[in-house]
Amino acid sequence: MVAFMSRIEVIMPKLGMTMKKGTIVEWKKKAGDKVEKDEVVAVVESEKLTGEVKAPASGILVEILHDVGDEVPVGEPIAVIETEGN
Prior knowledge:
The chain is mostly beta strands.
């Protein structure tokens, strides 16, 4: 039986009603790390708020798309998690 891998994007969240972009403050995980669903993988901030970004699924954080200090529009991917699927 072959296990297929799925790639799931970690998205820049909207922390407030008027938030259009966020800045990555810290990565809690690095590429290659195993992550569990709802585990904090990054910290981001807007002009008014700071919040945690949680993994949308369990798997391996295979790619970080933006560095600390990068401003990323809300809804854009900031990382990729690879999960095992059937």
